[in-house]
Design brief:
The chain is 54% helix and 11% strand. It is α/β, with parallel strands linked by helices. The structure holds 2'-deoxycytidine-5'-monophosphate. The site of 2'-deoxycytidine-5'-monophosphate has 14 residues, from helix 2, helix 4 and helix 8.
Length: 214
């Protein structure tokens, strides 16, 4: 059983995917973290994230890097979005994601291209979205709440600009652009709180799994 959860930046897909995985008792992979690790490793190497060769070299990042909180910052998210446009990087990360998806007990993966490229055969495909303003607001509140960024507090307007730029890069890249698979269920959480979003997604997953079994 493969559950693919895609969607734009700050849509809440990660939190939802993690909760669905815990609820079903299956392993979960945040694929964005892999691209974030590549982005961070390019910076550590003193490379250029827009250079395909530099970004490919950074795909050899050590596994411990995945545990580093710095990966969660806006700055590293921006680097991840830049390295993710390179086909060689996407290819280098493909097998790791595919192997995770194919685990015998099933898996939940979240990202941008899970339902379209990594697991077009997924049993359930969700595309989680929300308005730009709402996604920026949630990211801003999260940053204030967790103090995850090492920089000074970033104004909401700047986060909104960053969300728009990230969307544009993720949607317009040639290789595996961000888009809902034709058979994905699109869920817009703009007007939902966390619990409403989770209940809606859980219902959709359970309904899809019931249909599969029928
Ligand atoms: O989900 P996230 O914000 O952690 O992802 C960071 C960047 O990584 C995102 O802007 C694009 C890239 N990404 C991708 O191209 N494909 C994925 N499956 C996951 C993330």
């Amino acid at each position: 059983m493969i559950i693919a959860v895609d969607g734009p930046t700050a849509s809440g897909k990660g939190t939802l995917a993690k909760r669905i995985a815990a609820h079903l008792g299956v392993p979960y992979l945040d694929t964005g973290l892999l691209y974030r690790a590549v982005g961070r490793q390019v910076a550590i190497n003193g490379g250029d994230p827009d250079s395909e060769a530099d970004a490919l070299a950074a795909c050899d990042f050590p596994d411990e890097l995945l545990e580093d909180d710095i990966l969660r910052t806006e700055e590293v998210g921006g680097l991840a979005s830049r390295v993710s446009v390179h086909p060689a990087v996407r290819q280098a990360l493909f097998e790791r994601q595919r192997a995770f998806a194919e685990q015998p007990g099933g898996a939940v993966l979240d990202g941008r291209d899970i339902g379209t490229v990594i697991a077009p055969d997924a049993d359930v495909k969700l595309f989680i979205t929300a308005s730009v303003q709402e996604r920026a607001r949630r990211r801003w509140l999260e940053m204030i709440d967790k103090h995850i960024d090492h920089e000074e507090e970033i104004p909401l307007a700047e986060i909104e600009k960053d969300v728009v730029a990230r969307d544009a890069r993720d949607i317009n890249r040639k290789d595996a652009p961000l888009k809902a698979a034709p058979d994905a269920l699109v869920i817009d959480t703009t007007s939902f709180d966390r619990e409403q979003a989770f209940e809606t997604v859980l219902e959709a997953v359970e309904e899809a799994l019931r249909e599969k079994r029928a």
